Structures are given as C-alpha cells and as structure tokens.
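Posted in: Protein Modeling Q&A

I'm a second-year student putting together a small comparison for a lab meeting, and my supervisor asked me to include a predicted structure for Isoaspartyl peptidase. I've never done this before, so apologies if this is the wrong subforum. The sequence is pasted below exactly as I got it from our records. If anyone can share the structure token output, I'd also love a short note on what stands out.
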Amino acid sequence: MKRKIALAIHGGAGTLSRSHFSSKKEKAYQLSLQTALQKGYRVLQKGGTAIDAVTEAVVNLEDNELFNAGKGSVFTHDGEHEMDASLMEGKNLKAGAVTSVKLVKNPILLAKAVMLKSKHVFLSGEGAMEFAIGNEIELETKEYFFNELRYKQWLKARSHDHIALDHDIAVTDKKFGTVGAVAIDRRGNLAAATSTGGMTNKRFGRIGDSPVIGSGTYANNQTCAISCTGHGEYFLRLVVAHEISNLMEYAQLSLQEACERVVHQKLSKMGGRGGLIAIDKDSNIQMVFNSKGMYRACLKEGEEAYVGIYKD
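Accepted answer (user: helix_wrangler)
Welcome! Here is the predicted structure, written out as tokens:
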C-alpha cells in the first residue's frame, strides 16, 4: 500500500520570542526553513527514499550559516569546530553516525557513508576523518566555518568560562542549535537525520545526544522516526528518541501521546529543555517542544506546508 509522503525539519529550539526578532531576521529563518523543506520533499515527490530526503534537507541546513551545523557551527574552547551527525532508516534499522569531526563540509554525508560503506555505526575524531578522506567526503578550510556572530559568542563565553548552548543569551537568543529531518516515503519507509555543531566553548571532547542513535535520532518502520534538539545531557539520560518508539510499541500510545509524555512530562520533570520532530508509520507528524520556540517546518501530501518559530 502506498503511503502519503511527508517530511518535517527542525533548526533548533530555545528562548525564541518575537521581541528578539527583527522582521528581516524572522523572514530569513522562515525562508531558510521553507527552502530546506521543499528540497527534501521534492526527493519524496520523485519517488526517492526517506533516507535521501532527510539527507537532502539536512545538507541544505548545514550549508546555511543561520543554523549551528556544518557552515554555521559554533566554536569550541580551543577555537575549533567539532561537528556531530547521525541518521537512521526504519526498514532494517541501519544507522550511521560521526562525532568530533573537523573541516567536513556536510557531516550528515559522512554519517550516511558510514551507514552505507562501512561495517560500523559510529565513528569518532581522527578515525572518522580518515574514513571521510578515504571516501572522498568534501572538506573545507577553517575560513569556511568562520562566522562573526559565532565568534562573538565564543569570546563572550570564554571570558566568563561559560559553556553555552549555541546562542549565549548575553549575545543574542539562547537556542539549542541542532538541525534535523524526519520523513516517510511512498513505500512506507521511515528515516531520521540530525546534525549539530555542539555547544559554544565546549571542552573535553563533549558529545551530546545528536550523534547517538536512540537518544537524538531513531527510526523504526513499526513505530516512528525522531530527530531531537535540546540540552543533550538530558536527552542522553532519557534516551528520548527510542523512549518514544518504545511507548508506541509496548504501551500502544499514539505518536502524539508518546511525544507529549516524553517532552512535557519526563524531560520537563528532569529540567531538560528542547524538542523534537516525529513522523509515524501512518504519516502523522508531531513537532513538540517545551522551550519558548523551535525552528520547524513540515509538509504532508495533500496538505499545506507549515513553517513556525514560536509557540503558536
């Protein structure tokens, strides 16, 4: 049976309020989300796979310096850019992930190569870079990743010996800067992808939930596809993405019920902030968050596209 194709994307969650946004800035984010959404959705329209659709959408977000992934990645304590990414397909539970990679233009493409061209799931640091070079993944110079706003955030964070989640509130909006996408294709296959530049001024090789299968990213054709964004330590401890799938499979909760229980009850109770996007096997979409806002967009066959930033 053919399924209705659908795609949802996110560009991070956090203290996003209308008072902090100029009309120009708001339109820039809305246009960027709309563009990434349409690029990924076209893949599905042409009969492409969910994996290819989420990859296409995330690549577009990685190439946009408005978002903390790829080109827009934040600075570490040492003034570097260390990026993480993961993706998973729901048919055979195949997955690929990378962490602490540098100079990779599109970390999601490296994660995809790990899934398709290796016998492994998760590669890190120098080993991941060796694999990238061996598989001709495109690299860029340090200058490519330099962004004046990110640089100011880093200087501010370093001066206070503070680790910030993407945007230091003293500089601009505080946002958990991860990008992601979830999709279902004509064949009913689900997929999820997530990519991030991590935390401003992060030290000690810190890794959040984004590259961790089951925490920040998960897909299973029997239940749902999930991509998360938020305070990674809490998402790791709750294994958020897999927890939602479990609630659907074993407790028979709907996608909406499972997402709301995890985000608004379990995550909030622990003090974790952020959100997620999700699609189930019946093409239902949820975009749930407990922060003030989340950059998000979705499009389901037969319906109008939606783009949002704030709580509606």
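A couple of things worth pointing out for your meeting: The radius of gyration is 18 Å. The chain has one domain: 6-310.
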